[in-house]
Structures are given as C-alpha cells and as structure tokens.
Write a structure and sequence with these properties.
three-stranded parallel sheet, 15% strand, Rossmann fold, amino-acid biosynthesis, hydrolase, 2 domains, 11 strands, methenyltetrahydrofolate cyclohydrolase activity, globular, 10 helices, THF_DH/CycHdrlase_cat_dom
Length: 297
C-alpha cells in the first residue's frame, strides 16, 4: 500500500520538538524573534505572512511585522532591513517576495545579516550550503529532507531527479542531496524547461521531486514502480468552486499514487513543512546569536 506522507502531522512534530528549545532559550532570557517584512499589495503574500505570524505565536516565538507601502522608495525597505539587523530582539528576518519591480531583490537578500537570514538565501549562506557547512538550510528543501526521513526513505546511493532549478527549491535541494551524510549521498539529476526528454529521467529515478510550478505535469506513466514522489508545487487552477479555483500540485496525484511506494500530497505535504522549518531556523538563529546550546528536532 502506498504511504501518503502527512505533512501537517510531520510539521506538528517539528513544532512540538521546538518547544523544549524555546523553553531553554527563554530560561536564559532569550525569546526568539522573527521579523516579517511585507512590501506588496498582493493578497497571497499578505496571507502567507499572516500564516507565518500565527505560527510564531503558537510556538512562543515573538513575531514582529513591518508593512511598507509598495510605492515607497526602495531605500525605505533597505533601511528597514538595516534597523532589523541591529535589533537584538530580532533573530530572524524574512522579506516576503516578490517585491515591487523598482526594488532590487538581490540587494534585499544581500542586505539581510547572514546570521539572521532564516530563509538561507544570502550569498554567504548559499556558499556555505554548497560547501557542506550550512548555517541555515533553506526552508522548503530542509522540509523535503524531514518528510523523507519521517517516511524512512533512504537517499544514500539512490537516483534522485529534481524537476525545477529555482534558487529557492531546485538548486539548494540538489545540493543537499549530494552532501555527505544523512539525507544525502544521492546521485542527482536536475531537470528543467530545456531538458530534452523529461520522462527518460523521471522513469528511472528512485526519488522524484517535482518543483517546477506546472500543475499536474508529472503523472504515473512517467514514474518507476515503487518510486518515492515529493510534490513541492502548489498551483491554482480554474475550477467550478465557490472560490473559482482549486489548489493542486505539480504531480497528478491520482495517477501517481498507485505507482509510488511513498508520495506527498499537495496541498498538505511540503507546504506545512516549509513553515515549520522557518520556525526551526528562527530558533537556531536565536540559539547561535545568544550562544545558548539547545536541542533541535
């Protein structure tokens, strides 16, 4: 029987495991703090930020939220980041992307103090990840690793295909899979929009990670019997519903499930883990900055 991994349950385990670490920090006078910065009038971005703030409240992390008018000069955002960098009550900084066109998103990422860069996208942190000495693993790739571990999926010696080469998921996840040690030691192929014959790669893979942002483009005919399938995508497609759309992943779940041994759904798979690992990174940042040893889940 196919094991459908419940991302909500695994994420709850991570949050529960953070409780002791947060308690240890508070006993030393340190309350982990996460600052979220929103410079957008996009409803989806506002929803994501509010969810992250709610997550913080539930686990005992101090949530600090800053909103900036999307028409404001870019310098206002940069100065806000500078202020948060020097605030001793802020241990993690997350600027919700995308930012307006007149703002250089690369400068936004460079501006964040790398010791508070809980997304893991500062150039210094990207370099540390590639070198095998990550300060923070990016939240979604780390969440994928945690999901695989929860399902006892071994990566050592396995053929892994990552479909998608984004800086947020595809590239860092491929790097994690090739690292030495737990969750790594895999042979990795990264596929993308210029891959000539995608199915020739996915059909031989022990583990397929779909992270291209294309609704249901991977189906059961493209998979090896007994594969592990991780669906990172969350896409809106038109539907005859009250909202006028439904959410779906990059994998055609119904055709893939009978073929796979292990599969993550979307929604309800990787998404909750991304949010949980943001909390994880915030607690780790607080521990590192305060020089207080804690046990992380």
């Amino acid at each position: 029987m196919t094991h459908v991994v419940d991302g909500n349950a695994v994420a709850e385990d991570v949050r529960d495991g953070l409780s002791d670490a947060i308690g240890t920090l508070k006993a030393e006078g340190v309350k982990p703090g996460l600052a979220t910065v929103l410079m957008s009038d996009d409803d989806a971005s506002a929803t994501y930020v509010s969810m992250k703030q709610r997550d913080c409240e539930e686990v005992g992390i101090e949530g600090i939220h800053v909103e900036i008018d999307p028409d404001a000069p870019a310098e206002e955002l940069y100065e806000t980041i500078d202020d948060l960098n020097t605030d001793p009550n802020v241990h993690g900084i997350l600027v919700q992307l995308p930012v307006p066109d007149h703002v250089d998103d690369r400068e936004v990422l460079r501006r964040i103090d790398p010791t508070k860069d809980v997304d893991g996208f500062h150039p210094e942190n990207v370099g540390r990840l590639v070198a095998g000495n990550a300060r923070f693993k990016p939240c979604t790739p780390h969440g994928v690793q945690k999901l695989l571990a929860s399902a006892d999926v071994e990566t050592d010696g396995k053929d892994v295909v990552v479909v998608g080469r984004s800086d947020i998921v595809g590239k860092p996840l491929a790097n994690l899979f090739v690292q030495r040690g737990e969750g790594g030691d895999a042979t990795v192929t990264v596929c993308h929009s210029h891959t000539a014959d995608l199915e020739s790669h996915t059909s031989r893979a022990d583990i397929v990670v779909a992270a291209a942002g294309v609704p249901e483009f991977i189906d059961g005919t493209m998979l090896k019997e007994g594969a592990t399938v991780v669906d990172v995508g969350t896409n809106r497609v038109d539907a005859d519903t009250e909202k006028g759309y439904r959410l779906t992943g990059d994998v055609d779940f119904e055709s893939a499930k009978p073929v796979a041994d292990v599969i993550t759904p979307s929604p309800g798979g990787v998404g909750p883990m991304t949010r949980a690992m943001l909390l994880y990174n915030t607690v780790k940042a607080a521990s590192d900055l305060a020089d207080v040893d804690v046990s992380l889940p």
